[in-house]
Amino acid sequence: MRPTSNTVRYWVFAFLLSLISGFSTANADDTAFQSGLQNLLAKSFNDKTQGAQQIADSGDERAEQILKALLDKQLFYTQSDKTLVFFDKDTDATQAKQVVSGDTLAVTDVKSLKRIKTNNKMRGLIKRLIANIQLSHPDAAVRLDAVKAMMGKVTPDQIDAINTLSEKETNADVKREMETLVQLSELESSDDSVVKAAITGLAGNMNQQVRPKLEDLVSSDNAEIAVSAKTTLQAIDKKVTWYGHLETLFFGLSLGSVLVLAAIGLAITFGVMGVINMAHGELIMIGAYTTYTIQHYILPNFPGVSLIISIPAAFVVAGLVGIIIEKTVIRHLYGRPLETLLATFGISLILQQAVRSIFSPLNRAVETPEWMSGSIQINEVLSLTLNRLYVIVFCLVVFAALFLILKKTSLGLQVRAVSQNRSMARAMGVKASKVDAMTFGLGAGIAGIAGVALSQLTNVGPNMGQSYIIDSFMVVVFGGVGNLWGTLISGFSLGIANKFMEPYAGAVLAKILVLVFIILFIQKRPRGLFPQKGRAADN
User: Fold this and answer.
1) Which of 492, 517, 507, 438 is CA-nearest to residue 272?
2) β-bridge pairing 75-78 and 113-115
3) Which residues contact 199 (CB under 8 A, 6 or more apart)?
4) Of 451, 301, 280, which is closest to residue 364 (Cα–Cα)?
5) Rounded to whole angstroms, how far apart are CA atoms 423 and 376?
6) 174-224, pLDDT tens digit by residue?
């Protein structure tokens, strides 16, 4: 069917009408924008405030930049022709950028520019206007930051707009924060039904501004509102307590991973060779100082790369020191545990003094790489620090690698053979002396790796190893001498138990209680949670 002439005229008219309305809207917006710029040049703060509002309402893409420049004291105008410019003398004192055209303007004399001043009231309005603009930003992260910036500062005339945006919001986090923003505002409503609905909606909400508002309503004259506020507060407290336990568990796992890293090398040497190595803490210290040396003297500008390189370097350095100790001292003291204990204690003092002579007795700080800094914010009350999270993962990786070495390599087979029956292993052709040296070197190298991890959690100093030697022995004895799985489980168990007791008993008493528990446990199970088979069982 061919279109009639009336139909054609209708569509042409409609098209022209849409163009005219579009032009008129654009002109209206541009008019508001230009009028706002002119008002910013006025002397009166009321006119300037009106100008900021007009710029925000215009919808111009430059509005946010202009308002931010006002807030950061970077919006100026030329005294000669009143041209608005962006100018930051700290960044570049020779150039400015025109607000309207975007062209650069050479600045020969800073006195030729005059800053547009603001007062406290105007700055408060500007912050709200910027937040309103950012609420419609395509990036969800920007919208979320904008909502958080508006918490507790919403005016009644903004509620409807935020409600409308909340209905259209697709991001769950932004939507939840918008709803919280509205509900916090509704708590101040004069309508009791609105207040009750807002209180119900805030159940389980852990936003930091919710609690003070609800605590004020607990003493309300309206009994229903007071009871509802108290019930909601109790629900929030339960949720906060639950996440508090999760945070304590995380810190316990973090401490446990440190204990496992510190003890796992000792578990090998103690389990295979029966050597009570009191210098084990100093081997941890050597690993930490290796990290410090690489970061500060070899790769000072690359903390991330230096940390990664420090892992194999610390293993090699501490492992070589361990082999030297085994070949020069410990080899001659097998079967004499008391003399071995005294000899290794003397070695620990020698190593501490050597470090003091080389690096000085002062503690040294190892820089944490950027990718290990900061935290993961789960919610308002729970955050996981990245450095501790990396240490937990690192501990599991080291444990898995060591487990595979002992189970899948010829060295691991020989270590297990010597551990279970030294005489039979020698009869089968295994060089026990070589296995002892390699085992001690392996345990010392893992201690050095533990020092790399500890350098990210504490300062590096000559006495740092002494803080972990007793804990390492407790972990090894509790888990079962020479048993890797026992070391892993006991390390995490003692770390978690310690952290859960600290809030009630204090750090010192918590350690004492853990020690008392281990003593009582060993009375019942002298060989630990997972006793070693073979020689260890016979002894």
Assistant:
1) 438
2) antiparallel
3) 187, 214, 217, 225, 228, 229, 232
4) 451
5) 53
6) 888 888 888 888 888 888 888 888 888 888 888 888 888 888 888 888 888
Residue 495 is which amino acid?
A: G
Phi, psi of 222, rounded to the nearest 5 degrees: -80, 115
Which whole-number Å values give the CA distances from 391 to 295, 365, 456, 490, in the listed order? 18, 17, 9, 17
Q: Which helix or strand (DSSP H or E) is residue 444 part of?
A: helix 432-454
Q: What confidence tens digit (pLDDT) does each residue in 45-96 have?
A: 888 889 988 888 887 888 888 888 888 888 998 888 888 989 988 888 888 8
Return the sign of the alpha-carbon dihedral for residues 107, 110, 113, 117.
positive
* Pairwise CA distance, residues 446 & 406, whole Å: 13
- How many CB atoms lie under 10 A from the CB of residue 9? 10
Q: Give the three-class secondary structure for 89.
A: coil
What phi and psi, each to the nearest 5 degrees, are found at residue 276?
A: -90, 95
SS3 state of residue 98: strand
Exposure of 531 by Cβ count < 10 A (0-12 exposed, 13-18 middle, 19+ buried)? middle
Sign of CA dihedral 48, 53, 54, 58: positive
Q: How far apart are alpha carbons 86 and 136 in whole angstroms?
A: 24
Compute the distance between CA of residue 63 and CA of residue 131 in angstroms, rounded to an integer.
12
Per the DSSP assignment, residues forming a β-bridge with 460 are 364
Helix (H) / strand (E) containing 197: helix 192-201
**Nearest in space to 164 (alpha carbons), one of 197, 132, 195, 200:** 132
Taking a C-beta distance cutoff of 8 angstroms, is the pair 500, 256 a contact?
A: no
Residue 85 · residue 66 · CB < 8 Å: no
Residue 217, both tokens: 């309503």
Which phi and psi (to 5°) does residue 452 adopt?
Answer: -60, -45
> What pairs with residue 458 in β-bridges?
none
pTM here is: 0.73
